[in-house]
Amino acid sequence: MARERSRLKPTEAELSLLNVLWKIGPSTVRQIHDAVSETQHTGYTTVLKILQIMHDKSLVTRDETNRAHVYSPANSEVFTQSSLLKDLAMKAFGGSTSKLVMRAIGDSTSKKEIEDIRQLLNKLEQQA
Amino acid sequence: MARERSRLKPTEAELSLLNVLWKIGPSTVRQIHDAVSETQHTGYTTVLKILQIMHDKSLVTRDETNRAHVYSPANSEVFTQSSLLKDLAMKAFGGSTSKLVMRAIGDSTSKKEIEDIRQLLNKLEQQA
DNA sequence: ACTTAGTTACGAATAACATCGTATCTTGTG
DNA sequence: CACAAGATACGATGTTATTCGTAACTAAGT
After folding, report:
1. What is the per-residue pLDDT for B109?
2. Residue nearest to nucleotide D27 (CA to C1')
3. Which one of A42, A73, B2, B38 has the fewest CB atoms closer than 10 angstroms to its CB?
4. Which helix (H) or strand (E) holds A63?
């Protein structure tokens, strides 16, 4: 099956770099590598290479003004999260987002989480 | 990074076969191939190969009593869905299932879906 | 200008995935 | 028994993902 050229799902390694970018904002390879090194063991050139690939895929943009290029996420965290959820809903929940939500709620047994979700529902209902 | 030997996440192709198995129950390669062929173009031996790999990974069990082996999912659909959600929560929502749920709810604006979810919350609260 | 530290670019090794062709094995039927 | 149909097993190929070493380039200080 051919990969879609547009709307590309980030791989696992790519997503971990995007998480850094969303957290600390536009950054150089060095900054990203430093941040990622706090939790993982990854070589500097590995991070660089992944960013270059992400640039090819248009998952990030980069500012080449200075010698050390500055990378930024091409899409927002919210947008990407929604895409990933939509993808998972398609592949594991027969396309039903609500089935996905119910399963996820069933898993989160924490009382506080349930209350958080209920409040979100109330807010949504008011808007509608 | 080394793959975990136990608790393996099914790949995309594997998941599509699991979906068939959950739907139509324990089946031979032929039956699975027929079912999958309704929506995809996949060779018979491709399906066979994937099932063999899944068997190696213990994602399916198989009954070799008869010439045509009968494959069954090793884990339930619910269990697998929960695993995938947990995985996505870790990788894209900082480990927070409730953040995942909120994002998913935010995407599904349907009034009926919101009501369904609220009822599920009520039921959960009663149990707790 | 030369050296050095820091950077990007490039290519290669490895593993996982997905796909399929061919070979081999089994079993029912003529 | 022999054969044909249908099954599994095996190996090969091509692609993607992940990783990193090495080379080449750039800029800044001495």
Report:
1. 63
2. A67
3. B2
4. strand A60-63
More confident residue, A67 or B128: A67
Domain residue spans in chain B?
Answer: 12-73, 77-127
- What is the pTM for the complete model shown? 0.91
CA–C1' nearest nucleotide, residue B2: C15
**pLDDT tens digits, residue range A15-33?**
999 999 999 999 999 999 9
Distance CA A63, CA B39 (A): 43
Distance CA B123, CA B70 (A): 38
Residues B77/A89, Cβ–Cβ less than 8 Å: no
Residues B121, A121: C-beta atoms closer than 8 Å:
yes
- The one-character DSSP state at A64 is -
Q: What's the token pair of residue A107?
A: 């898993």
Token reading at A13? 């390694």
Is A88 an interface residue toward B (CB < 8 Å)? Answer: yes
Task: Match domain B12-73 to its CATH number in 3.30.360.10, 3.30.420.100, 1.10.10.10, 1.10.357.10.
Answer: 1.10.10.10
User: Count of CB atoms within 10 A of residue B1's CB?
Assistant: 8
Q: How confident is the model at residue A2 (pLDDT cuts 50, 70, 90)?
A: very low
Tokens 């990854």 correspond to what residue? A42
Q: Residue A78 CB: number of other CB atoms within 10 A?
A: 12
Cα distance between residue B84 and residue B92, in whole Å: 12
Q: What is the pLDDT of residues B101-118, one digit of tens each?
A: 999 988 766 778 788 888
Contacts of A30 (CB under 8 A, 6+ apart): A44, A68
Confidence band, pLDDT 50/70/90 cuts, at residue B29: very high
